[in-house]
Design a protein that fits this description.
Length: 505
């Protein structure tokens, strides 16, 4: 975007035609564009700007040309003046004023996740740099995402926001540190350059694209990522024989245990074993009765990480295939994200506008009923009504949401937590009120009586991590009740004081 703006400026044109010039730009760069358009260099330049950025238009526009019902009407003044004259455009300043509605599909249950506050994606002390680079793009980052998360990720252009998201979702394996993901977690990822999702399918209709993408039960887009390709080093590790202890009967009829070397051919199934998963391995040239269950850590050491991820994706996709992949169902699904039936079923993707293409990507990514939706700069190309509808859909969604955005108004309308990426590190700022209540909830039961191994009573100090499940819900419910009572009591005291003041007067 900066390069496009620089080329336009160097043309020394009499007229600047700018289509969404603030897309992808952070706050400082948007301000630079405002300063340029309103500065001395543009005194004799006419700028025709298409934009959905209300604040930007308020700062630069001298006239508003409103396009509605196939007609153009010119209004003198900036956006604020336009809304005064044309109150129906209130949604330009208030996202909640939109009449449009979006709806995301309800995610299915996750094994072992009994409350929405439990982490389903997690990175711990993660460092990452791209191959061949000396400098780390992110340093010592720890973060968790749950189905109750509403997270806005902010930072300057190039700070590493998209890189961190790719590490969090497993697309970029961490250089150092740990990354954990619930094996059945399904997530929808709308990339910063959203159109790359559909650039190979422009001659399909949106409906045909979704049918192609999910035919066979898996998301085909996930299968073509570089992170799914087995490297020569991994192939070498996977082909290395593994020692197996087996029982054999000798000539005398005695059963003895001997060691055999076998090569794992493929992974067949997964099961839970304590806190970790085990995977059933089938060996080359051996019947299935000889299959053995192995711990995930051992298989990862032997190069089977990508095959484990592939099996996890298949099982997660199977768990999410609750809907029939029919044209009627897909059409209804696209209507839920604001794309009309005529456009989704009868128009080729190539003919759609930028905003309509974003809705195609949003609908396609969420078809699998994800537990987590990740949106990288979703406000690009969407009009104000669509932004308001997207904000409301995020608030109502039953799963978690992470969004990277430079649009503070949009972020404030639908998120409760902010991750700031700066100097290659992450700083977390949660909703102040929610943090206060959570801390008070822990202080209510700060001490807990327990018995040691000898039956003696000991006091165990409680931490945030130790309070879970139903107990946490009960504590929060009691806390809200206590806070409400305190507020009502405070109001009563204020009323008494006011009455006493009148009486004294």
């Amino acid at each position: 975007m900066k390069l496009g703006l620089a080329r336009a400026i160097l043309r020394k044109a009499d007229i600047l035609l700018m289509d969404e010039p603030t897309n992808h730009l952070d706050v400082l760069n948007v301000q630079w564009v405002v300063d340029y358009l309103t500065g001395d260099e543009c005194t004799n330049v006419t700028s025709l700007i298409v934009s959905h950025d209300t604040k930007f238009l308020d700062n630069v526009a001298t006239h508003i040309i409103h396009f509605a019902d196939l007609k153009l009407k010119n209004y003198l003044g900036n956006m604020s003046k336009f809304v005064e004259i044309f109150p129906e455009a209130k949604a330009y300043f208030d996202l909640s004023a939109t009449t449009m509605k979006f709806k995301f599909p309800t995610p299915g249950p996750l094994m072992g996740v009994r409350n929405k506050g439990k982490a389903i994606l997690e990175i711990e002390n993660v460092w990452f740099k791209y191959p061949g680079c000396e400098k780390y793009q992110i340093k010592d980052v720890t973060a968790k995402v749950s189905m109750s998360s509403r997270i806005a990720i902010v930072g300057a252009n190039g700070a590493g926001k998209s890189t961190m998201i790719k590490v969090l979702t497993g697309e970029n394996p961490p250089t150092k540190g740990k990354m954990k993901k619930h094996p059945n977690c399904r997530f929808a990822y709308v990339a910063q350059h959203a159109f790359h999702h559909i650039e190979q399918h422009l001659d399909k209709t949106p409906n045909e694209y979704v049918q192609w993408r999910y035919q066979g039960g898996q998301d085909k887009e996930a299968l073509v990522k570089s992170t799914t390709k087995i490297s020569p080093e991994e192939e070498k590790l996977m082909a290395k024989p593994i020692e197996v202890l087996v029982e054999r009967e000798d000539k005398n009829g005695e059963v003895k245990k001997i060691k055999e070397k076998r090569i794992i051919e493929k992974l067949m199934a997964r099961r839970k074993a304590g806190k970790k998963n085990e995977y059933e391995a089938q060996f080359k040239g051996r019947p299935q009765s000889d299959n053995i269950w192995y711990d995930i850590d051992l298989l990862v050491e032997r190069g089977w990480k990508k095959k484990i991820d592939e099996l996890d994706r298949r099982l997660a996709a199977a768990a999410g295939n609750a809907r029939t992949l029919s044209a009627a169902n897909i059409q209804k699904h696209f209507e839920d994200v604001g794309l009309e039936a005529e456009l989704s079923t009868h128009n080729r993707i190539r003919s759609l506008s930028g905003g309509q293409k974003v809705k195609v990507v949003l609908g396609a990514c969420t078809w699998s009923q994800p537990h987590l939706i990740i949106l990288d700069e979703p406000t690009n190309y969407l009009d104000r009504d669509s932004l308001g509808a997207l904000s409301n859909a995020i608030k109502d969604f039953e799963g978690g949401v992470c969004l990277i955005t430079h649009n503070k108004e949009f972020a404030d309308s639908c998120t409760r937590e902010t991750w700031v990426i700066a100097n290659n590190q992450l700083t977390r700022n949660a909703d102040a009120e929610w943090e206060k209540y959570a801390q008070e909830a822990l202080e209510i039961a700060a001490q807990e009586e327990a018995l040691d191994a000898f039956g003696n009573k000991v006091e165990k100090k409680r931490t945030v991590e130790s309070v879970k499940g139903r107990e946490k819900k009960k504590m929060m419910k009691d806390l809200r009740k206590r806070i409400k009572n305190d507020m009502e009591m405070t109001q009563f005291e204020e009323d008494c004081a006011s009455a006493w003041g009148l009486f004294a007067a």
